[in-house]
Give the backbone structure.
Amino acid sequence: MENIADYLKAERSQEWRAELRKSMKAKERTSLERVKMLEEDPNVRNKNIIEVNKGLTPEMAIVESHRCLDCPDPTCISGCPVGINIPKFIKKIETKDFLGAAVTLKETNALPAVCGRVCPQEKQCELSCFYTQKLKKSPIAIGHLERFAADWERNSGKMSIPKTEKHNKIKVGVVGSGPSGLAAAGDLAKYGYDVTVFEALHEVGGVLKYGIPEFRLPNELVDIEIETMRQMGIKFHTNFIVGKTASFDDLKAEGFQAFFVGSGAGLPRFMDIPGENLNGIFSSNEYLTRINLMHASNDEYDTPVISGKHVAVIGGGNTAMDSVRTAKRLGAEKAMIIYRRSETEMPARNEEIKHAKEEGIIFMNLHSPTEYYGDEKGRVKQMKVQKMELGEPDASGRRRPIPIESSEFIVDADTVVVSVGVSPNPLIPKALKNLKVTDWGTIVVNPDTMQSSVPEIFAGGDIVRGGATVILAMGDGRKAAAGMHKYIQEKITAN
Amino acid sequence: MSKILEKEFFSKNVVKIVLEAPEIAKSRKPGHFVIIRIDAKGERIPLTIAWADEKKGTITLVVQKVGVTSAKLSKLNTGDEIMDVVGPLGQATHIEKVGTVLCAGGGVGVAPMLPIVDGLKKAGNRVITILAARSKDLIILEDQMRGISDEVIVMTDDGSYGKQGLVTAGMEEVIHREKVDLCFTIGPAIMMKFASLTTKKYNIPTMASLNTIMVDGTGMCGACRVSVGGKTRFVCVDGPEFDAHQVDFDEMLTRLGAYKDQEFEAYQKYLQTVEA
Ligand SMILES: Cc1cc2nc3c(=O)[nH]c(=O)nc-3n(C[C@H](O)[C@H](O)[C@H](O)COP(=O)(O)OP(=O)(O)OC[C@H]3O[C@@H](n4cnc5c(N)ncnc54)[C@H](O)[C@@H]3O)c2cc1C
Ligand SMILES: Cc1cc2nc3c(=O)[nH]c(=O)nc-3n(C[C@H](O)[C@H](O)[C@H](O)COP(=O)(O)OP(=O)(O)OC[C@H]3O[C@@H](n4cnc5c(N)ncnc54)[C@H](O)[C@@H]3O)c2cc1C
Ligand code: SF4
Ligand code: SF4
Ligand code: FES
């Protein structure tokens, strides 16, 4: 850690930064108001899939960058799982060097345009900002600025392709093309390896593609990043399920020396209540996959989807928000969130909850479904819900919901999206008998190297954490790439 | 991309397609299936690997025309390419020597039955195969089945070939005649339901290969879920074969109809464009 602190110090003491700090009084900086993201009109956007956040203008970004105090002890950085040099990139924006800001972001984060959009900043970098911690004021809009710099670079047509070491011709495999896999692949390519990413689906990107909707994260943006990775020499093999299409042993026989497994948390959970297999009841994965990956709401595509007038989405996470806002966009008159705790406990990003409310989503907090009823054709038409109250905090630290007796009532719902969580994808643990997994089915790794109980296999992201965030998954991917590099180099020197 | 190397119509609505897919050909086992997507706007549909040639690197699919995707597939020709083919998916059939096995296949379900019959025979079982269809022209793979089964019984609903009657009539006949240790059934859901009811009466363990609606085929979406023994299971990863006596076929039939209206409309629209 010491050398990181030294590096940050050295960076901070560079002349241009010192000059910049002096150019405006701290008092003046802290008196500025936090910038407001430009957004589409809620009543227009809830009928289409265009991106809700429109980004900051350069003027807005520059004003916001002035707020950042370039703190001697930048606590914001410790809130970022990949340790972006936040003050440095913000100060680059202040000097109008937007491309330089993007380069700074890419020192540690391969997908800044994605993270600027989807990170739960209020729980990470922005929570740790001096403004939040000490001044009790709105934090620097770090996420908005990150997105601004990344978008600026992309739109400038001057995307930098990260430099890679001389090719060492050593083959390594990455299983899964979600954020953890992409981050691992990027770093492994930088180290000089011959990297192949295997992806089970027909599209690269994992949840970024099939889960998070267009109105929050346009697919095009992910594709551009993937194109950059292709130019770095990374190969993508879609429609390839490791453990099925070929085994690890098959791949090792082809010369692969080590693997990163980022196979995600794929298995949707249901609640096991009567009527849950009626037609019109989906897991959020199915609902979102049909729409985002298969384009079911577009008539030109063959995949169908049912989405009705009264849509109930069960859950309070990002996935639930994405599903309910999608339902609204597909024409639901009533799109409801049914969540068993209160808004304070909701795991979704604050911004998504705010946007959902603006778009006319109905929130039935402290309610939980107990049974579904169908029509004569087997399609759900109503559900029974029960009121809840909050008890003592449980293992997750959130207050436990307790059902209130005889409080059930009936709600009309012709479509239900169950979004109560996912379990780790079992494909890899099933394919590798000697791989150590927890009772939950997550892969056990050494937290420093991300190495699993099988020496040549490293893992990270949701398959290790059970369900986390894009940036944590990417952090794991990078750490694992370093671990793999060390492992392979040691193996080579030993021989 | 997978190239179509051979194509042959078994009947008006059933077509055999041989695809280039070397990796899948190498790793697949009886009971496995693939998911294909014809083009960028296509849907993903599951199809059983009827058989494979590891040396040539090919897999063979037998497809029945029932809607847009299967119709589009049947229109493709040798040399054309299919955009996405992924597999092998599902659990392989558990094959062991048990004695006498009755294999009841209906319609296009006869194709996925072929590698199972082959495996059972090679494991040393006596295999009696029943081929059932509405009429003579819908009976497929009879010669191949005769080549590997100890006995083949053909049943048609209209009596145009073999014996007249439903598949269950043929099953009862065998069960009354000799001791059956195990039964496999693959075909339309409604046929499997009645085949299963039949063997349940005689306490004969029975496996059915379920053909639920799927999207990803990797356990990620839950579209394929069915109730087996009162528990929700995912056909794509837990199946496709299950203990038929535990399967809630009525629920499965309802779920198969989830998109009936949309599928019908899409098919009519498609037929118009093809005819135009
Ligand atoms: C709808 C939704 C909204 C979300 N919103 C946010 C948000 O706003 N902010 C945030 O930070 N996080 C969000 N998350 C969580 C975040 O997306 C995940 O934590 C993150 O994507 C995990 O990344 P991963 O690399 O571990 O796996 P994934 O993104 O799940 O990717 C795994 C990939 O591996 C593939 N795969 C699996 N097994 C195999 C195999 N055997 N062979 C080949 N390929 C395989 C899968 O097909 C998949 O593409 C959201 C999640 C969802 C579902
Ligand atoms: C594991 C498995 C193996 C299968 N193997 C074969 C095979 O070897 N040969 C073959 O001809 N068919 C097979 N099927 C069925 C095949 O997938 C469907 O016939 C096909 O998806 C229909 O698509 P469509 O667009 O042509 O018709 P659609 O118009 O979409 O549907 C017509 C009818 O087919 C059923 N259906 C629709 N979608 C699916 C789906 N994804 N899966 C199953 N049934 C569906 C519905 O009941 C519907 O009423 C298999 C299904 C499964 C699950
Ligand atoms: S990557 Fe996420 S946590 Fe890190 S600075 Fe950017 S928005 Fe904040
Ligand atoms: S803690 Fe806040 S004010 Fe301080 S450097 Fe970080 S972003 Fe700027
Ligand atoms: S098809 Fe998606 S889980 Fe089985």
In short: DSSP finds 21 helices and 18 strands in chain A. Chain A has three domains: 4-156, 171-266+424-494, 268-422. The mean pLDDT of chain A is 93.
